[in-house]
Amino acid sequence: MPVRPSISGISSPAELQHALQGAQYLADEGLATAAYLALALGKPLLLEGAPGVGKTEAAKAIAAVVSRAVTRLQCFEGIDAASAICEWNYPRQMLAIRQAGDNYLNIYSDEFLLERPLLAALRSPTDTLLLIDEIDRSDHEFEAFLLEFLSDFSISIPETGTIRAQQHPIVVLTSNRTRDLHEALRRRCVYHWIDYPDPALEAEIVMARASSVAQATAAAVVYAVGRLRQEPLAKPPGVAEAIEWAEAATLLHSQGTPWPQAFLRSIGVALKDHDDLVYMQPNLGSVLPGEAA
Question: Domain 13-76+121-193, CATH 3.40.50.720 — does that match?
Answer without folding.
Answer: no
